């Protein structure tokens, strides 16, 4: 069975490429989606890649992943630092979660140092740009393989 991974992106990430390129790079969200799709193909993963600016929509997608997906890669963007609801939804999904940030949030403003998600994630990758997503997918592939063995 091919593992199905849900890649979720939070608010303002639709503006990647034009929004603060010194923090977030030159790649657009479409570029990021293509990179993840290519990586998933190489790794033998099925991928669902999504972005929303509406917290309730993100919560609905996390709920739907329960029993449907095998892992979640999430860049909650600004909701990282504010949302207990997203943390609770991720716990309820009962899936391995990898938290990803394009920028190194620990080098930035103090309010970005707090994450409501990190405490329930398997791991956190930040500051490595779009490569962080590729690494998260690769980790999940290996972890799911070991779990199935
Ligand atoms: C971000 C970091 C967050 O602090 C910020 O609000 C974002 C993007 C990142 O990918 O570096 O929107 O999650």
TrEMBL record:
Q: What Gene Ontology molecular-function terms does this entry list?
A: 3-dehydroquinate dehydratase activity
So what EC number does this one have? 4.2.1.10
Q: What is this protein called?
A: 3-dehydroquinate dehydratase
Q: Which reaction does it catalyse?
A: 3-dehydroquinate = 3-dehydroshikimate + H2O
Q: How does it assemble?
A: Homododecamer.
Pfam families, per this entry?
DHquinase_II
Residues of the active site: 24, 101
Gene designation = aroQ
Q: What family is this?
A: Belongs to the type-II 3-dehydroquinase family.
Which positions does UniProt annotate for substrate binding?
A: 75, 81, 88, 102-103, 112
CDD domains from the entry?
A: DHQase_II
Annotated InterPro entries:
DHquinase_II, DHquinase_II_CS
Instruction: Please give the function described in this protein's UniProt entry.
Output: Catalyzes a trans-dehydration via an enolate intermediate.
């Amino acid at each position: 069975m091919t593992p199905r991974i849900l890649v979720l992106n939070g608010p303002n990430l639709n503006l990647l490429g034009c929004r603060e390129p010194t923090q977030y790079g030159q790649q657009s969200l479409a570029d990021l989606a293509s990179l993840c799709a290519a990586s998933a193909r190489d790794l033998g993963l099925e991928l669902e890649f999504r972005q929303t600016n509406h917290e309730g929509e993100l919560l609905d997608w996390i709920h739907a992943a329960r029993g449907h997906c095998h892992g979640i890669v999430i860049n909650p963007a600004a909701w990282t630092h504010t949302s207990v609801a997203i943390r609770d939804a991720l716990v309820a999904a009962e899936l391995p979660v990898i938290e990803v940030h394009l920028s190194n949030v620990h080098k930035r403003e103090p309010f970005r140092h707090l994450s409501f998600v990190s405490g329930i994630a398997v791991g956190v990758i930040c500051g490595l740009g779009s490569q962080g997503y590729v690494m998260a997918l690769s980790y999940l592939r290996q972890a799911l393989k070991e779990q199935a063995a």
